[in-house]
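step=encode ok
step=design start
structure_in=
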């Protein structure tokens, strides 16, 4: 069933993308002009040209950025596009955070996506093509309308829909340095009742990285520090293929049926040598060995969803019901070879076959009812059921041909979870002040079954999560905002698996069956000035986090270490975020944003100081120059500042990107992009405790040049898609006219 979902989506999308033979639709009635918002109401409108020429839209509880005009996003991943979105940071390895908090929930069209489940979120962001996404909603302080997951907030990716009447589409081909190649096709069809959108994306990518780590551990026997040095040189290939097909059909003027199929397949390989040397506190070499690792991963994800949307006679009065089934198969093979030089020992070989199976069923209902001018009641429910299985089979031997099963490397782990959720929000203006209040209730039932270790655990709890948003309209150009939300971060399923996974002879990785959810109280206050095409935003924020969990490195003795996840800290963060967008001159637009912040961590005893704090800054900037009607040039840069972790910190990094687009004809354009122009994307992690110290440095060959050609076809007037925060049906379009 799961593989058929994926194959069906991959097979059907090309047919949609090239459906040029469809009959010409009847003329479409022009859309009616939107009603003028009531006094004091703060529903957003497109107000400014933003990052990379992207439109910014705001509402009382979120900000939405279009990424369709970002040249880096034309042939890159959504991870590349997110680096140009205010409040969002994407590190060297593709991990995303909001204002420095990595506990972010990523939704697609308002729904959870299985491809972002488990330990592959970063890989999924690097695999998902940005040209599937119309815009990105950044929700740093979500209302109770949204699920409470994600202490850092929510990033909601809104899929593209078909634009124009009749058949429309595009074909993009780009190639670049190191054999990086992208081929994508999008297509759609629009008529009075039917809307179809689909895409197919193929990508070949390769990368090299060099890493050096100097790790010092206190030797209790001598009272000095032993030094362990690890030098790695890895080469990786990432070949993701994805497809999507979305259909909206209006049964009548008030009823819409929607369906969607998504398929994603990733073939990932990484391999190379690692040299380990261990030196005693007296300076003598005690051990040296080389480990060669080859990892091959095949990850298949498929999702099918069906949506019913019913509009009632009163404008804005509607009910939406959505059912989604999402399945992921993740198969990995880790093959290692260890050769010891000091002392000289026989070679050893190991092989681990990992089979991860994720299944999720989600039923969601949302009801919206206007209760007067500017007043709206929203209520809904959501039932999510997860059924996951994780299997490890391990082998060891003196040669590849002599590998035999090893019980210490074999494991079976089952994870089952059910979430019952209900919410209600009420928005109402009181003169120039608009209030949005909400409450969400969630009941969680988690069953953990460590079959190998014969250990069963339960982790059940029921919680209420309130939210409050205020907006005070000072005049037609200015408003003040304030908000509060209570959020939770639930561990990923693999973080509960306490089985030790072999990484190399000196490093193991394990989860923690006793992890508790992390909770955050988040506060914001902001000022907004809008005078098209200029916008200024200033947002003060404060977060207080309890039971924060993070990766912790522990010394097991004899130079062997265990990396695990634990509830280790209470933390606080405060800062001010500034955004400025506008036009410098005719054809020249800009977007600047910065985040000036303070972090404090109070870890539980880990050999680290009791309380640590630091100030930092991050930011991004973009300039878009329409040099001629046919030539567009974009310059983007970003800087991610230093971030604390319970045992140390992550160092800063940044990059400069360049893009150029030349319109050759009305249907054909040439594209040139340069990523990491100055080759500054590097990774640095520091662990600094009295018992353990580490300095890790990683260089990634992220600098790349790509050239491409984009061909589009079709067009004409389409039915009004409207602007619907959070998306609507499976295709992300608006409701029936």
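sequence_out=
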């Amino acid at each position: 069933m799961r593989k058929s979902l994926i194959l069906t989506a991959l097979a059907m999308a090309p047919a949609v993308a090239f459906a040029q033979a469809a009959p010409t639709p009847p003329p479409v009635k022009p859309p009616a002009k939107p009603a003028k918002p009531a006094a004091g109401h703060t529903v957003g409108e497109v107000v400014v040209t933003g990052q990379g020429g992207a439109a910014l839209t705001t509402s009382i509880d979120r900000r939405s950025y279009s990424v369709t005009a970002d040249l880096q996003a034309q042939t890159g991943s959504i991870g590349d596009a997110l680096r140009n979105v205010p409040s969002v940071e994407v590190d060297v390895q593709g991990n995303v955070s909001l204002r420095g908090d990595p506990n972010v929930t990523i939704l697609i069209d308002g729904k959870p996506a299985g491809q972002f489940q488990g330990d592959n979120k970063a890989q999924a962001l690097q695999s998902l093509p940005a040209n599937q996404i119309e815009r990105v909603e950044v929700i740093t302080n979500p209302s109770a309308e949204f699920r409470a997951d994600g202490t850092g907030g929510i990033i909601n990716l809104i899929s593209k829909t078909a634009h124009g009447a009749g058949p429309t589409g595009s074909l993009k081909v780009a190639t670049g340095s190191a054999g990086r190649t992208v081929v994508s096709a999008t297509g759609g069809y629009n008529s009075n009742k039917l809307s179809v959108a689909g895409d197919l994306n193929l990508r070949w990518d390769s990368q090299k990285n060099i890493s050096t780590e100097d790790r010092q551990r206190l030797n209790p026997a001598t009272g000095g520090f032993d030094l362990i040095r690890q030098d790695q040189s890895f080469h990786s290939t990432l070949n993701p293929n994805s497809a999507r097909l979305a259909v909206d059909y209006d049964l009548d003027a008030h009823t819409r049926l929607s369906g969607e199929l998504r398929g994603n397949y990733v073939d990932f390989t990484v391999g190379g040598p690692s040299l380990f040397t261990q030196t005693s506190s007296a300076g003598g070499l005690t051990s040296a060995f080389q480990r060669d690792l080859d990892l091959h991963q095949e990850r298949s994800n498929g999702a099918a969803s069906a949506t019913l949307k019913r509009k009632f006679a009163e404008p804005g009065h509607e009910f939406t019901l959505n059912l989604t089934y999402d399945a992921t198969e993740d198969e990995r093979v880790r093959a290692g070879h260890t050769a010891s030089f000091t002392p000289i020992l026989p070679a050893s070989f190991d092989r681990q076959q990992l089979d991860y199976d994720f299944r999720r069923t989600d039923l969601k209902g949302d009801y919206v009812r206007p209760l007067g001018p500017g007043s709206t009641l929203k209520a809904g429910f959501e039932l999510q059921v997860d059924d996951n299985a994780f299997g490890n089979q391990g082998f060891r031997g003196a040669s590849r041909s002599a590998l035999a099963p090893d019980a210490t490397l074999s494991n079976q782990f089952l994870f089952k979870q059910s979430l019952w959720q209900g919410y209600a929000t009420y928005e109402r203006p009181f003169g120039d002040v608009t209030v949005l209040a909400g409450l969400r209730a969630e009941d969680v039932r988690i069953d953990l079954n460590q079959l190998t270790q014969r250990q069963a655990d339960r982790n059940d709890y029921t919680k209420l999560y309130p939210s409050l948003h205020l907006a005070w309209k000072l005049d037609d150009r200015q408003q003040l905002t304030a908000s509060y939300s209570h959020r939770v971060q639930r561990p990923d399923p693999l973080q509960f698996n306490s089985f030790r996974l072999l990484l190399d002879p000196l490093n193991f990785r394990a989860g923690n069956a006793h992890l508790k959810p992390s909770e955050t109280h988040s506060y914001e206050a902001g000022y907004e000035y809008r005078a098209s095409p200029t916008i200024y935003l200033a947002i003060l924020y404060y977060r207080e986090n309890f039971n924060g969990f993070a990766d912790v490195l522990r010394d097991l003795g004899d130079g062997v270490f265990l990396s695990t996840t634990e509830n280790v800290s209470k933390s606080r963060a405060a800062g001010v975020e500034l955004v400025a967008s506008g036009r410098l001159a005719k054809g020249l637009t800009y977007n600047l944003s910065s985040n000036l912040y303070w972090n404090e961590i109070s870890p539980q005893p880990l050999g680290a100081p009791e309380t640590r704090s630091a100030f930092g800054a991050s930011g991004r900037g973009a300039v878009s120059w329409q040099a001629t009607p046919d030539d567009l040039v974009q310059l983007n840069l970003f800087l991610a500042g230093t971030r604390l972790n319970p045992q140390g910190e992550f160092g800063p990094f940044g990059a400069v990107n360049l893009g150029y687009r030349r319109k050759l004809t009305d249907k054909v354009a040439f594209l040139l992009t340069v990523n990491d122009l100055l080759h500054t994307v590097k990774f640095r992690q520091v662990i600094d405790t009295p018992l353990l110290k580490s300095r890790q440095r990683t260089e990634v060959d992220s600098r790349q040049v790509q050239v491409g050609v984009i061909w589009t076809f079709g067009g004409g007037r389409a039915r009004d898609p409207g602007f619907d925060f959070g998306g609507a049906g499976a295709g992300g379009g608006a409701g029936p006219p």
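step=design ok
step=annotate ok -> DSSP finds four helices and 39 strands in the chain.
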